[in-house]
Design brief:
Structural class: mainly alpha
Helix content: over 70%
Strand content: under 5%
Distance between the termini: 35 Å
CATH class: Mainly Alpha
Number of domains: 1
């Protein structure tokens, strides 16, 4: 394949790559973040329990996390296009199995395992890897924020569509619509794969993947970054999985749950772009830590007040602004510390920690509710570890590795 340097990309080539990866990310995440809307219908019609549903979504997140580093390695070695195309096919297969599932086991296979692998290939980490390789160093943080923002539009579109179809035509028709959206991801994934033509550069080019992993494991800042990322997954997946059920318990119209997810998606667009821009001008570690702390404060305020449609939508707007703003910041910090060569691999490993948090957010929330008959212990725990992680994140070591400092001439030129 004929390669081209990033600075020699035409505007059309850049727009096709970034537009394709943004659409792919938008649809992948829109579907993923709408699963909670199906929970009441599946419990009623499929005969599964809240714990069964929570476990399937928890497994989706843990499978996504476990497979993400390996998918990253495959991407770094064989290119983006084959990985994302396979991911789209797996996504459609998982949705199809969920549509015809007659048991918790079949639902877990489709919505849990296959969807989890598919997300490794099509969602945030691979998408931001594409964006980072396509953008120039000067504009990288802004481009990462922009792709994350455009990728956030999916939930604003998909969640209301799903709830409308569930209410008017049944959950089966909503899943059929999801399969159609997965088909629309195929051309988007193909264009995103155009990033394979871009030369990576010299940074880290002489490293093996084993050497890159050892280098990352020795860096205390990377360890803090990956550990704090756990909290991000826990808080967000707890909300997307259990907020619709919490509202149902409180006697609030189920359409409010879909509206809340749509509001999250809309404000996520603003927040992702905002934090991408801020990350190019201010300390990424302080911005990250601030996001974790602010989320925790908003969760506290929401669950302490009596729930209402208005308070729910205000809460959704606040959380949406802070939703995926972490992703361009985390990706930018990994590039700052280690360069681009093994970005997909190293960001994938950090994302595994995120998905461990997602697992506990989805499954643990259901488990705690089953034990106590209340979500109070769950949100209190999410708040406590969120504030702790935010403060630790602010103290992260952001000095690039000696190798990167030598290759850049001065690794301290990029703010962390």
């Amino acid at each position: 394949m004929k390669t081209v340097r990033q600075e020699h990309l035409t505007r059309r080539q850049m727009l096709l790559i970034l537009g394709g990866v943004s659409l792919m990310l938008s649809l992948a995440m829109g579907i993923r973040q709408s699963w909670g809307l199906f929970q009441p219908s599946f419990i009623r019609d499929m005969g599964i329990t809240t714990a069964d549903f929570s476990l399937a979504i928890a497994l989706q997140n843990i499978v996504w996390g476990v497979t993400q580093p390996f998918v990253g390695m495959l991407t770094d070695r064989h290119g983006t296009r084959p990985v994302v195309l396979v991911g789209v096919v797996l996504y459609a297969a998982g949705l199809l199995i969920s549509l015809y599932a007659q048991s918790a086991l079949m639902f877990t296979l489709g919505a849990g395992i296959l969807a989890g692998i598919a997300l490794s290939c099509t969602a945030s980490q691979i998408a931001l890897n594409v964006a980072a390789r396509t953008a120039s160093p000067a504009n990288r943080s802004l481009v990462l924020g922009s792709v994350s923002a455009l990728g956030s539009l999916g939930i604003a579109f998909v969640s209301p569509l799903a709830q409308s179809l569930i209410t008017g035509s049944g959950w089966q028709m909503a899943l059929v619509a999801f399969i159609a959206l997965a088909a629309a991801m195929l051309p988007a994934a193909w264009f995103a794969g155009g990033v394979d033509r871009i030369e990576i550069g010299t940074a880290g080019s002489q490293q093996s993947v084993r050497e890159a992993l050892a280098e990352a494991a020795r860096h205390p800042g990377y360890v803090v970054l990956a550990t704090a990322f756990f909290v991000c997954g826990l808080q967000l997946t707890f909300l997307t999985t259990h907020l619709p059920t919490y509202l149902d318990i409180c006697g609030i119209d189920p359409n409010v749950g879909a509206q809340a997810l749509a509001v999250i998606g809309f404000f996520n667009v603003i927040g992702s772009y905002l934090f991408g821009w801020l990350g190019g001008h201010y300390s990424k570690r302080f911005l990250l830590g601030g996001i974790y702390v602010l989320r925790s404060l908003f969760i506290t305020a929401y669950f302490l007040l009596p729930p209402s449609p208005t308070s729910t939508l205000v809460f959704a707007a606040a959380m949406g602004t802070l939703w995926l703003g972490v992703v361009p910041l985390v990706t930018g910090l990994v590039v700052h510390l280690f360069g681009l060569r093994y970005l997909a691999t190293l960001s994938g490993i950090a994302f595994f920690s995120h998905q461990l948090g997602s697992f506990f957010g989805a499954w643990g929330g259901g488990l705690i509710y089953g034990m106590f008959g209340s979500y109070d212990p769950a949100w209190m725990g999410a708040v406590a570890i969120g504030i702790s992680a935010g403060l630790i994140q602010m103290g992260m070591n952001v000095r690039p590795t000696p190798r990167v400092e030598r290759e850049r001439g001065s690794g301290l030129q990029v703010a962390g």
